[in-house]
Each structure stands twice: as C-alpha cells, then as structure tokens.
Design brief:
Radius of gyration: 20 Å
Largest sheet: 6 strands, antiparallel, barrel
Helix content: 10-25%
Distance between the termini: 40 Å
Number of strands: 23
Number of helices: 5
Order of helices and strands: HEEEEEEEEEHEEEEEEEEEEEEEEHHH
Strand order of the largest sheet: 1-4-5-6-7-8
Strand content: 35-45%
Length: 341
C-alpha cells in the first residue's frame, strides 16, 4: 500500500455491537444497531469483558465513508466503514454521554456495527438512549480530529512575543518551524465537556522543556528533534500524539468540567510553538473539513480534500513504539544538549 494512503490513516478505538447490548426495553438482548433500527429509551449495558479494538481506516474524501486498512484488529481490510449517527445516552446520575455509530459494509450490505464512545463508558451502568442524530455525527467526528490548544496557552509570535491563544486574531503572524512567520487564516473556538475524547492532555511544566503546563487535545501531535534516537524511531525527527505519552504523573488526561479549545489554521499545515513545545496546527483533511467554514476550507485547500502533504507528517511515531511510561522522559533526554550522557 502506498505511503499516500497511510499518511491519512486514523486509528479508531471501537467496541463491537455485541459489547453494547440492550439490557431493558423493546430490543432487549440485541446488540447495538444502526440508526434506523434503534429504539428510543432502550437501556444499554457495556459488557464486563468489552475491549476497545483498534480499527485503522483511511479517508475516501467524503468525510463520512472510510476504508478499513489491513492493520486493523476490528473489521475486514478493504471493507467500507460508514459514519452512521451520533447517540446521546443518559446515565442514572443524569450525566449525558455521546457515542458514534459506525457501520461496516461489504458488497453493499451491513456486516457489523461498532460503537465509538466520545466519553468513557463503564460496565454495570444503565445507559438510556435519548437521542439519535444522523446529521451531527460528521461534525462530532470532526471535532475529535481537530487538534486544539486550550485557553491560556502561550503561542510564539513572529516577533518572539508569547501571546495567549485566546488573544490571537486572523492575520496575526506566528513563528513556524519550517516556513518562518506565517499568518493565521482562521481561528476556531469551542467550549466542550472535558470528558473522554475531549478531555485535554496535560504536559507538566518542564517535562519537555515547556515553560508552563501545556494542555492540548488528546490527538494533538508534537514535534521533537532527538539528538540521540532514544525511542528507536530510526530517525532524529519524531511526531508524537500527546495521548501516547500519558503516564498518569507528568503527562495525564484532565477529565471533568469544561474546556475552551482553540484551533489555529494556516494556509499549510504548520509546526508552531506552544509554551516552547513544537506542536502542530490544524490539519485540513476530509474528516476535519466538516468543522471548518466552507469558504475558509476552499481558501486553504482549493479543490483538494485538504491541506497538501508536508514532510513532517511522515515522522509520526506508531503508538506501539512510544506508548510507554518513560516515553516523555526519554524524549526530554533525547532532545536536550546532554542527550549523549
């Protein structure tokens, strides 16, 4: 398979339909199904033995249909995966949860249904189905993929000034790693419940030479130049999702309450500096484009489905290589002047 295909690959941690069954209601005993077959007010339980399986997919350009790749543990490689709907569930304590329904299609027929929760679900808990929205699914899926900085994050401007992200304006020039000063074309902002896929990852002050605590969306990628390849990537440059660095101590997910997220968009996908850490800007692709105004999307990508490919995207490190308790410490040592000590 070509590098171009894998450059747009995404890993979705999903439950199979049999893992999320109706415990009480009209469809009692049945596993999760697609929107047309769901019954409002049915109560679901997550299986005690449920395990989220990694499904690796690539985009077909529509933002709603994907192809399952051969690195998936869930689904059959080559089959289509359709983003079906967004569910709203309510627990006994009145907390609400959202989850996406994905349908695997082979030869025009649905062969499996998957659940992609946007917050953590627990066994032995009643989840009452109170909403099914076919139209919101694409937007919610896009929101998860939109890499974001939290309110208060200091961004390095072209002048060297450290400016809080919420004070930035389109047209402001930001320092980029590869292209010098670049103008911000668009700034997105959303206030979300800080749960599950939307709970920010906190990198404590100094862990990666950052000036202050840095809070980023979980799939946000940071760029590290290693003076010595301590993580075994086979190269000096590595591009790492912050959720793969979580160790529960110096890097952790801050779950609870609400979070103000900001997305910074440039004409090209850029690496900028947040609290001194090199971090990516918003990448326009078929998935995220649903979260960007149409006019802005056309300005930055023209007739393409998204931003053009940049060399730094090839430096992304697989989760299997970097997801270890000492990963952040290794990257700190690898990127410091004393890396050879």
């Amino acid at each position: 398979m070509s590098d171009d295909v894998y450059s747009s690959a995404q890993t979705l941690p999903v439950y199979r339909s049999e893992d999320f069954r109706v415990a009480s209601g009209v469809a009692e005993g049945d596993g999760l199904s697609f929107a047309d077959e769901l019954v409002m007010d049915d109560i679901y339980h997550l299986s005690e033995n449920a395990v989220r399986m990694p499904m690796v997919v690539d985009q077909d350009g529509s933002g709603r249909t994907y192809h399952i790749l051969d690195r998936s543990e869930a689904g059959k490689p080559g089959n289509l995966l359709v983003l079906d709907s967004c569910l709203t569930l309510i627990a006994p304590d009145s907390a609400t949860y959202e989850a996406l329904v994905l349908v695997e299609v082979e030869d025009g027929m649905a062969v499996e249904v998957y659940l992609l929760p946007l917050a953590t679900l627990e066994p032995r808990t009643d989840y009452q189905l109170v909403g099914v929205d076919r139209h919101a699914a694409t937007a919610r899926f896009a929101e998860v993929a939109c890499v974001s900085f939290t309110r208060g994050t200091h961004i390095t401007m072209a002048s060297g000034e450290q400016r809080r992200v919420e004070l930035l304006q389109p047209g402001d020039k930001v320092l980029t790693r590869d292209d010098g000063p670049q103008e911000i074309r668009w700034i997105g902002q959303a206030t979300l419940r800080a749960v599950g896929a939307f709970a920010p990852v906190v990198i404590r002050k100094g862990v990666l030479h950052n000036e202050n605590d840095l809070r980023l969306s979980p799939d946000h990628r940071i760029f590290v130049y290693q003076r010595q390849d301590r993580v075994g990537a086979g190269r000096a440059e590595v591009f790492v999702k912050v959720r793969h660095l979580i160790n529960g101590d110096t890097v952790f997910q801050e779950d609870g309450g609400f979070v103000d997220y900001y997305q910074l968009l440039f004409d090209d996908h850029q690496i900028i500096f947040a609290e001194g850490i090199a971090a990516e800007s918003l990448l326009v692709d078929p998935r995220t484009r649903a979260a960007i105004p149409d006019e802005v999307g056309r300005q930055v990508s023209g007739n393409r489905p998204g931003h053009k490919h940049r060399p730094h995207q090839d430096y992304e490190v697989a989760e299997s290589l970097i997801s270890r308790p000492d990963a952040a410490a290794l990257l700190r040592r690898a990127s410091s002047s004393g890396a050879l000590d």
